[in-house]
Amino acid sequence: MLTIHGDIRSGNCLKVKWMLDALGCDYQWVAVDIMSGESRTPEFLLLNPFGQVPTVVFEDGRALAQSNAILLHLAEETPWIPSDAWERAKMLEWLFWEQYSHEPYVAVARFQRVYAGKSADEVEPRLMERGYAALARMEAGLAGVGWLAGGQGATLADLALVAYTRVAHEGGFDLAAYPNIRDWIGRVENAFGIQ
Amino acid sequence: MLTIHGDIRSGNCLKVKWMLDALGCDYQWVAVDIMSGESRTPEFLLLNPFGQVPTVVFEDGRALAQSNAILLHLAEETPWIPSDAWERAKMLEWLFWEQYSHEPYVAVARFQRVYAGKSADEVEPRLMERGYAALARMEAGLAGVGWLAGGQGATLADLALVAYTRVAHEGGFDLAAYPNIRDWIGRVENAFGIQ
After folding, report:
1. Which end of chain A is more exposed for a tag (fewer CB within 10 A), N or C?
2. Tell me, what's the ipTM?
3. Number of domains, chain B
């Protein structure tokens, strides 16, 4: 059975859990508390030298990190990776953008509030500014389309981006002015059976 | 003919150029000076709402951003994307890691020196510290293997990571203590014909 080493509060870890749930795969969850340094112990670094969660360990002992790489590996041959080459390229564009231009702001602002216990005033203004820029980009990208990659169904781009977008309010982001995003969150939760 | 909108000093843009050169594809290069805001003009945002370079525009007018997504699209059906599912997963792991844990430090330190004209003392110590951590991770990952994804030949992981690693010294990083990386840089340059 596959094992996920992860922190249940982390969107990057939840993405992988939701994917396995949607695929109907059995797995074991090993809780790693990143706040107490559990992802940096010698034992964990042996498993994943990147020292990051989620890390997935397959039955044969091989380990894979990077949430979006894990999703792409698990979802091979499923409709969540479009068969159309262009739609697949747009899905990948969103997946890389998520890790570079969304997660470092939307997730990190939430991290400072939820994990580190900072007040709204203590969160770096740059995080809020860039987080809102990322949300504005998504809002525009969802105008007139149901799914981020632009096709007829949900893809990994939707799963990856929903992880931190659905809890953006916990980082202090107000989604009131983002109706496309709010509708899309419900659609993605339905498509993947996210509670 | 395909058009690359890019900045020739940017490793993210050069990756795409090297890929097209290696594939023997013709393309047009449109210089975008990010320092003077050319990637944020209304005209450019119409082309790429992400406001980032590189952006590739195909003959039919469709545009694609995110360097590693562009590489994955261009290299479909080539040996630079391994046919083995596990090797492909490890390639993807490195590609996402590059954008999250390497580029934001190694490339940004270089940006501060080369583009913004800062002295070594003016570069944020955190960038150097995390940049060296990324280089140490690569050095360990290259122990006993020729290529990052662990297979018998170069993959997109090598191309993506070499872009900023080969110019890391311009950001003040000393590769003297990283012999695996130094050997690997030469191998990757040869494999892709990088001058």
Report:
1. C
2. 0.96
3. 2
A55-57/A63-65 β-pairing? antiparallel
Residue-number span of the structural domain to which A14 is assigned: 2-74
Cβ atoms B22, B47 nearer than 8 A: no
**Looking at CA atoms only, how far is residue A89 from chain B in angstroms?**
6
Q: Which residues of A touch B49 (CB under 8 A)?
A: 137, 140-141
Q: Which DSSP state fits A111? A: I
Size of interface A-B (CB pairs under 8 A): 82
Residues of B in contact with A11 (CB under 8 A): none
Q: Are residues B16 and B93 in the same domain?
A: no
Report the Cα A81 to chain-centroid distance in Å: 16
Measured in whole angstroms, how far is the alpha carbon of residue A131 from the centre of its chain?
Answer: 15
* CATH number for position A144: 1.20.1050.10
Rounded Cα distance, A89 and A73, in Å: 16
Interface of A with B (CB under 8 A): 49-50, 52, 62, 64-70, 72-73, 76, 85-86, 88-90, 92-93, 95-97, 99-101, 103-104, 137, 140-141
Give tens-digit pLDDT for A16-33: 999 999 999 999 999 999
Round the CA-based radius of gyration of chain A to a whole number and report it.
17
Please check whether residue B142 lies inside any domain of the structure: yes
**In this structure, are A90 and A126 located in the same domain?**
yes
The answer as to whether B80 is a domain residue is no
Q: Are B63 and B56 in contact (CB under 8 A)?
A: yes
Q: What is the dihedral of CA B174, B180, B186, B191, to 10 degrees?
A: -140
Structure tokens at A34: 């990143």
Chosen from B77, B100, B155 to mutate, greatest number of chain A CBs within 10 A: B100
Q: What number of other Cβ atoms are within 10 A of residue B151's Cβ?
A: 20
Radius of gyration of chain B measured on its C-alpha atoms: 17
Among all residues of chain A, which has the CA nearest to that of B74?
Answer: A89
